[in-house]
């Protein structure tokens, strides 16, 4: 029984007996294939009927949507419930959600072909799948009502979960659920158009829909890993090596064992774990450990040395070529003007509000995990390998997570592996809750990689770009991992060059080179991945070219994007709403900048207004975003994600950096890795381009344009270009 069920008194379903909805990937997806409701004897106690992997109906008419994506605050619970409710003509107040179990056969991400959440795909990959599931469930319920009333299905009207007929007959979904579940498949949803026409939408794209997670997060019934309390559970804290690649040489746990509440101390591959009856005792026990570390295989360099090596790498041709279009050398030969610039970017931590944690129990030859699993298809086999069982013996109960930004989807499943290793080493069958402090999280690795860029760009007599040479050097996310063969082609990790290798602007001669540098620091995707640095470089360089050509930055971009209608729409919308006036200059001490970038199939343009303060600091006053993300499912969720992306990107641009000295991370908590403060958050206005196209990603695309738009605004106010992030303690004087 799930934690949510124990709290709310519901009952779980036997997942092994579910029917499933087979939806193929690619264009034209959406037809119902092999959708078969479960037989009555397979249903859970209480009369809850499960029509397919995604929809359950209770006798009282409540509809539970099985959510295959982890909700870390980005809103897929509300989004997926909206799709089901729309197709079922359900009463929004009766919508419920629960997280799916680990079962990639039923709940795979249709983009990844594995069960996981990321890449801003939660809604985009579920758009047709969930709508089809909702339409099929509705069709079954209508058919059941038609059979009972002896009327034609087409004569039945459904509104807010109530079926009615002109004869006066009425009934709720709950009344017909059991009968509908006994119908043979297919059930009769239209095969050519299995779901609603957009003109009939009552929920999709509409304002004012109450987020489905608001109430449980407010009243405390939303369960996070830290809330989990099980009989006999032990809490574990781990002493990790201070340097990446370090190992335990020896340890003395005599003082740790004296701490009241400490039960066991065990060594695991990741360090030394203290198990205690409560969190405080586990932390105090860890503090009392005396560990001698072996740093013979550890990374000993500082981050400044790494960035120096990256700068040296971009001063010469790259080791691999990501893009080679036209004749770059010839383009430079006839150029009217050449602009060259170098940029650097530090390691960045994910710094989610909820640090990493996981509950693991090994009992009777099986493993039970309870935590905010972002990538079940990695977490499940990793746990199985450590516990010495087959993956089918590992169950994962996914609960809410307080942010991730990529950290919980690590390919090594590091903290999950740690929890299972501790449970195994403990020698018993008690559940173990691994708890990381924020210091553990900040110092524990898996950062956005460091990078250096060098761009040389040329413009012709008309001021338009004729050649662009772009060199990138930094650490690869995939090189040296189990995913290298899949993700690295001809020496190019696409996540290192995305946003630069596929330049949206009309530049006839383009060459992008990559040099991958090695470091012992573990790295990972970070909200918007490679776009976090490539967008900054591209958009600030385009701005430099516009000024070198004596052209307005927005007008210049529009001219270079004339064959990109979605980019044009987003940029024009942002400029219009911001009141951009070509050729105008802000008053002294003020600056205005713009950037537009595509990531995750979504285009976001942002206009940033800044004030240079009396002490030379930068105050961001306003950000206006124009967003082209296809059909907007939940307007409030879209706004929230773009607003959050602006704040996330702004914090990184202003002050965030992970630095190492002699291989040791210097940041620990929010005092040394400072998040954006409320006083720093500007007014953010988000506008979406009307569209009837399929939804595209929204969780990450608000991040990339922020830093370059900010940098361009600073230039507008001061005449100084920002090429190294973060701004840190830099002081500016107005132009």
Automatic annotation (TrEMBL):
Residues 219-297 form the Aldehyde oxidase/xanthine dehydrogenase a/b hammerhead domain. Keywords: Oxidoreductase. Pfam families: MoCoBD_1, MoCoBD_2. Gene3D superfamilies: Aldehyde oxidase/xanthine dehydrogenase, a/b hammerhead, Aldehyde oxidase/xanthine dehydrogenase, molybdopterin binding domain. Its EC number is 1.3.99.16. It comes from the Bacteria. This is Isoquinoline 1-oxidoreductase beta subunit. It comes from Hansschlegelia beijingensis.
């Amino acid at each position: 029984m799930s934690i949510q069920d124990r709290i709310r008194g519901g009952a779980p379903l036997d997942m092994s007996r579910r029917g499933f909805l087979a939806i193929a990937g690619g264009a034209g997806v959406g037809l119902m294939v092999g959708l078969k409701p479960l037989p009555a004897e397979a249903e859970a106690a209480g009369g809850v009927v499960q029509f397919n992997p995604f929809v359950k109906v209770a006798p009282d008419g409540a509809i539970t949507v099985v959510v295959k994506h982890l909700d870390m605050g980005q809103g897929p619970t509300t989004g997926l419930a909206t799709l089901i409710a729309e197709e079922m003509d359900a009463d929004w107040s009766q919508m419920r959600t629960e997280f799916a179990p680990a079962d990639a056969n039923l709940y795979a991400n249709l983009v990844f072909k594995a069960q996981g959440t990321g890449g801003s795909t939660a809604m985009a990959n579920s758009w047709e799948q969930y709508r089809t599931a909702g339409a099929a469930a509705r069709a079954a319920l209508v058919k059941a009502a038609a059979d009972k009333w002896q009327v034609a299905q087409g004569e039945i009207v459904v509104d807010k979960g109530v079926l009615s007929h002109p004869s006066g007959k009425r009934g709720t979904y709950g009344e017909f659920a059991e009968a509908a579940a006994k119908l043979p498949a297919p059930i009769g949803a239209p095969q050519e158009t299995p779901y609603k026409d957009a003109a009939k939408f009552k929920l999709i794209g509409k304002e004012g829909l109450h987020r489905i997670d608001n109430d449980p997060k407010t009243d405390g019934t939303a369960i996070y890993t830290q809330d989990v309390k099980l009989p006999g559970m032990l809490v574990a804290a781990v002493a990790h090596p201070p340097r990446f690649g370090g190992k335990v040489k020896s340890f003395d746990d005599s003082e740790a064992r004296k701490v009241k509440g400490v039960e066991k101390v065990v060594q695991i591959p990741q360090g030394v774990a203290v198990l205690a009856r409560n969190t405080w005792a586990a932390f105090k026990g860890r503090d009392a450990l005396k560990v001698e570390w072996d740093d013979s295989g550890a990374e000993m360099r500082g981050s400044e040395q790494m960035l120096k090596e990256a700068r040296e790498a971009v001063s010469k041709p790259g080791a691999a070529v990501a893009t080679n279009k036209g004749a770059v050398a010839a383009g430079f030969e006839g150029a009217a003007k050449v602009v060259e610039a170098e940029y650097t970017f530090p390691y960045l931590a994910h710094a989610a509000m909820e640090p990493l944690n996981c509950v693991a129990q090994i009992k009777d030859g099986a493993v039970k995990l309870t935590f905010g699993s972002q990538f079940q298809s990695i977490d499940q086999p990793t746990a199985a390998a450590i516990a010495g069982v087959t993956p089918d013996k590992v169950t994962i109960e996914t609960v809410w997570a307080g942010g991730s930004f990529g950290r919980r989807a690590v390919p090594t499943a590091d903290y999950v592996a740690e929890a299972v290793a501790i449970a195994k080493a403990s020698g018993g069958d008690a559940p173990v809750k691994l708890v990381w402090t924020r210091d553990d999280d900040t110092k524990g690795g898996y950062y956005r990689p460091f990078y250096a860029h060098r761009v040389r760009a040329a413009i012709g007599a008309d001021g338009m770009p004729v050649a662009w040479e772009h060199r990138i050097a930094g650490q690869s996310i995939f090189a040296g991992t189990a995913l290298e063969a899949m993700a690295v082609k001809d020496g190019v990790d696409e996540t290192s060059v995305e946003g630069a290798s596929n330049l949206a602007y009309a530049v006839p001669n383009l060459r992008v080179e990559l040099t991958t540098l090695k470091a012992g620091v573990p790295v990972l995707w970070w909200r918007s991945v490679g776009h976090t640095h490539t967008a900054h470089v591209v958009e600030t360089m385009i701005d430099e070219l516009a000024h070198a050509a004596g052209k307005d930055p927005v007008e210049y971009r529009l001219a270079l994007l004339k064959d990109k209608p979605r980019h044009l729409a987003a940029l024009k919308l942002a400029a219009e709403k911001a009141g951009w006036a070509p050729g105008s200059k802000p008053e002294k001490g003020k600056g205005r900048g713009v950037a537009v970038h595509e990531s995750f199939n979504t285009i976001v343009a942002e206009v940033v207004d800044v004030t240079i303060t009396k002490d030379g600091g930068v105050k961001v006053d306003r950000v206006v975003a124009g967003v082209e993300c296809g059909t907007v499912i939940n307007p409030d969720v879209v706004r929230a994600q773009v607003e959050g992306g602006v704040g996330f990107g702004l914090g990184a641009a202003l002050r965030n950096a992970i630095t190492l000295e002699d291989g040791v991370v210097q940041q620990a908590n929010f005092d040394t890795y400072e998040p954006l403060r409320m006083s720093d958050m500007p007014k953010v206005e988000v506008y979406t381009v009307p569209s009837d196209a399929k939804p595209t990603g929204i969780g990450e695309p608000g991040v990339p344009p922020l830093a370059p738009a900010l940098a361009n605004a600073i230039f507008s106010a001061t005449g100084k270009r920002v090429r190294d992030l973060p701004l840190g303690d830099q002081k500016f004087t107005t132009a």
